[in-house]
Design goal:
The protein has 357 residues and is of the alpha/beta class.
């Protein structure tokens, strides 16, 4: 069996390819070119993101060491239309999107799978820390947390449909990050000690507001900061510069700590309140994808995460329409944010999820 491995240039995908080869599989590596590298950003800034030119060269070096073919696949236009544009439109609606999940949802896995078909590869593989397989009872392909819970990436993969899970291998699911680095060092990979990417690839300097103004051509306008009673307490520098739960950088002189607890894009207002205004037990979500179940036919006791670094919390999930999920938590949760993703879990197994509205 042959496998096309998604190669990011990092240590994880490099070790994934090496392990698959040691299992006797025929492999080739492929890096997706998703953005045009901006020369305005220096190497220090670009190194914090994925998909840089140096990442491509690192992936090429590893494939050469493994003796396998390496390809660079250009998907910049598709990435722009389905990820970057959605990111900008979401922020302009007052949301806080997760473009890395959208990349998995719309581009990365589908692009690799499509090229694998053209090249005659039956399977694809990724260096994500997650586990998958076929449930012989339910007949569905499952997605499960990686063994290294500190690196588990099942949250960002909940959006993968059954046809993608069916053919995707996750060789690192049963390993820890420390073990992966040891394997890379033992094989002499130049990226054995390479840091993990952190920032969004198309906003390498972390200045989301500046990116939005450049990308959309729309200048962010000053507006009112409001208290929970709707009284103006100051001026903000454009609602897209803020996100729910934010405390720092507000520029307000308040008697007690203030947090962003509401954004109204149409009125160009940002509401600031205390910690209690951030708490909520309920959310709804759209653009649903189910993994462990085909649908939720009746209210379901489970756990849910509302952001990547959030620990799962007990809740009841109910599918109230074809593409509408309602989640009610047992305990109030802090800073439930529109545009982020809610993911449902049954123990270590992903049930599904959607985008919080």
């Amino acid at each position: 069996m042959s496998v096309l491995v998604a190669m990011s240039g990092g240590v994880d995908s490099s070790v994934a390819a090496a392990l698959l080869m040691e299992q006797g599989l025929r492999c080739a590596g492929a890096t997706l070119r998703l953005t045009h590298n901006d020369p305005a950003f220096d190497d220090t800034v670009r190194e914090r993101t994925c998909c840089s030119l140096s990442d491509v060269e690192d992936a090429r070096s590893v494939c050469a060491r493994l003796g396998i073919a390496f390809y660079v696949l250009n998907f910049t236009e598709q990435f722009n239309q389905t990820v970057v544009r959605r990111f900008a439109e979401g922020y302009l609606r007052g949301e806080t999107p997760n473009p890395c999940i959208d990349c998995n949802r719309f581009v990365k896995f589908h692009a690799i799978a499509a090229r694998a078909d053209l090249m005659g590869h039956a399977q694809i593989a990724s260096g994500h820390y997650a586990q998958s397989g076929l449930d012989p009872v339910g007949g569905r392909y499952y997605l499960k947390k990686g063994v290294d819970l500190s690196k588990d990436q099942s949250y960002v993969l909940y959006c993968l449909p059954q046809d993608i899970l069916k053919r995707t291998l996750f060789p690192l699911g049963a390993l820890t990050k420390a073990q992966v680095r040891e394997i890379a060092q033992s094989r002499g990979f130049l990226n054995a000690g390479k840091h993990d990417s952190q920032d969004i690839c198309f906003v390498p300097d972390g200045d989301y507001a500046g990116f939005l103004e450049r990308y959309t051509g729309i200048a962010l306008r000053e507006g009112d900061f409001l208290n929970p009673d709707g009284v103006c307490i100051g001026k903000h520098r454009g609602f897209a510069r803020y996100t729910i739960g934010q405390r720092k950088g507000l520029g307000l002189s308040l008697k007690s700590p203030g947090y962003v607890c509401g954004i109204d894009a149409k009125k160009n207002t940002v509401t600031v309140g205390g910690e209690t205004q951030l708490l909520s037990r309920d959310l709804t979500a759209r653009e649903l994808n189910f993994v462990g179940v085909a649908a939720i036919k009746s209210p379901l006791r489970c756990k849910a995460k509302i952001r990547y670094r959030h620990s799962e919390q007990s809740c009841v999930a109910e599918q109230i329409d074809t593409d509408v999920l309602r989640v009610r938590f047992d305990e109030p949760q802090r800073a439930i944010t529109a545009g982020q993703d809610v993911v449902l879990y049954d123990d270590d197994y992903v049930l599904g999820g959607g985008i919080i509205t």
